[in-house]
Amino acid sequence: MILVTLGTQDKPFNRLLESIDKEIEKGNIKDKVVVQAGHTKYQSKNMEIYDLLDRDEFQNLISKCDLLITHGGVGSILSGLKNNKKVIVSPRLSKYGEHMNDHQIQIVNNFVKEGYILGYYDGDDLESILKRVKKFKPNKYVSNTKKLVSIIEDFIDNN
């Protein structure tokens, strides 16, 4: 099963769903596709689309999915990585009215550079990325939360 999450941004991200729908139509995606679309209104006979899933259902789907396809939100990316999932990430772009700015490109670039995810950028061919993800071995994500807390505690103690 493929889980697609578009986050809670109040702007639509139809572009990603249209790309996925095309790959289903071409036969390149044969898995069941479940979408948490947020504020994106999109009709498809090929995908199960929900506005928002409750936390338990979302966690259940992320634990069951074989692949997560998501927008460039850090929370969505980390949900996949913390559950040891292969993740394809497409940044929302301001030029399409999907976001206010293009900060998601930097987020995706950083995760790609670390070998955690595959990026799906504007102009890329989703079919080739879907082929690459089959052999993709993501680096194991290790949270730096303890290090960050330590830095903050040191700062507080010394100031």
Provide the fold topology.
Elements: E1 2-5, H1 14-25, E2 33-36, E3 48-50, H2 55-64, E4 67-71, H3 74-82, E5 86-90, H4 103-113, E6 118-119, H5 126-135, H6 145-158
Parallel strand pairs: 1-2, 1-4, 2-3, 4-5, 5-6
Strand content: 5-15%
Q: Count the strands? A: 6
Which strand order does the major sheet show?
A: 3-2-1-4-5-6
Helix-and-strand structural type: alpha/beta
Tally of contiguous helical segments: 6
First-residue to last-residue Cα separation: 51 Å
**What kind of oligomer do you see?**
single chain
Task: Please state the average pLDDT score.
Answer: 93
Biggest sheet features:
6 strands, parallel
**What is the ordering of alpha helices and beta strands?**
EHEEHEHEHEHH
Radius of gyration: 17 Å
Question: Which overall shape is indicated by the principal axes computed on the Cα atoms?
Answer: globular
Query: Are there runs of 5+ residues with pLDDT below 50, and where?
Result: none
Helix content class: 40-55%
